[in-house]
Design brief:
about 280 residues, mainly alpha, 9 helices, about 0% strand
């Protein structure tokens, strides 16, 4: 008896589910048919509520005009610059020195993650833009704009754009570091700067920047180190040896840094060091 009642209920549920499924399928077919009729019944007219999508085509064909390749070369050049932009920004500009010095400053203050890494990198980036602005303007005026105007070819644009960047790196590179990589590369001794290969100049510039940044970082550490030693001596004299000196010295470090207007001194000295 119970089994028969259960079977009847199950059959009713299955019939109801089948009816609902058929109804949903019919609605979906009707909506699809209406959409197809609406799409095929007319075309898009400006000013109406229709939706138009831009067309995209890709084709390969032989061209007898060199001017037809200008657009393609511009895209290739742009993609190349974008792919090398992080390496160019870090290795061939003032970014290395600035970000290392600001990191040393945060460690000297002992503020852990304040300022955060994003803020330090962002400030270093915009300071690099500020320092490198004359170099970028020179590259834009002598290389990029004439090339986009089709007044010079790609090779000439590359040579003109490389020259201001090489001049900046030469002005910040120590002769000792340059001699090191010249000896390691086993190249003939160059007679002037123009004969120094770029692949030799870049690593020489980087280690010179690191050496300068570490020297500035050492000078930043000294006043805060003296303050830590004074606080530690006072705590030991008072018998408070279990209290970490950093906890007491941190407010005094921040007070000292604010009173002497530390950000102006550090940033100003960094920018002037590239003069």
């Amino acid at each position: 008896m119970i089994r028969s009642i259960f079977r009847q209920r199950r059959s009713k549920v299955l019939r109801l589910a089948a009816c609902v499924g058929l109804g949903l399928a019919a609605l979906a077919l009707g909506a699809a048919r209406a959409h197809a009729e609406g799409a095929g019944g007319g075309s898009f007219v400006p000013g109406t509520s229709g939706l138009s999508l831009p067309s995209l085509s890709l084709s390969f064909a032989n061209s007898q005009k060199p001017s037809d390749l200008v657009g393609v070369l511009r895209i290739v050049l742009m993609m190349t610059v974008l792919s090398l932009a992080p390496a160019i920004l870090i290795m061939m500009t003032s970014f290395t020195r600035i970000v290392v010095v600001l990191s040393f400053l945060r460690q000297a203050l002992g503020t852990q993650q304040m300022p955060p890494n994003q803020l330090i990198v962002g400030l270093s980036l915009f300071l690099s833009f500020f320092v490198m602005a004359p170099t970028w303007k020179n590259i834009s005026a002598n290389a990029v704009e004439p090339y986009l105007a089709e007044k010079i070819d790609q090779k000439t644009a590359f040579e003109r754009g490389e020259a201001p960047l090489r001049e900046f790196m030469f002005n910040q590179t120590r002769e000792k570091d340059l001699e090191l990589f010249l000896s390691l590369s086993k190249e003939a001794k160059p007679k002037n700067r123009a004969e120094v290969p770029t692949y030799v100049l870049v690593p020489s510039f980087v280690i010179s920047e690191l050496k300068t940044a570490f020297q500035i970082g050492f000078m930043l550490y000294l006043p805060f180190l003296v303050l830590d030693m004074v606080v530690a001596s006072v705590l030991m004299a008072m018998g408070m040896m279990m209290l970490p000196p950093v906890v007491i010295s941190l407010p005094f470090k921040l007070l000292l840094f604010v009173l002497v207007d530390g950000w102006e001194l550090v940033v100003g000295s960094l920018v002037k060091s590239f003069g």
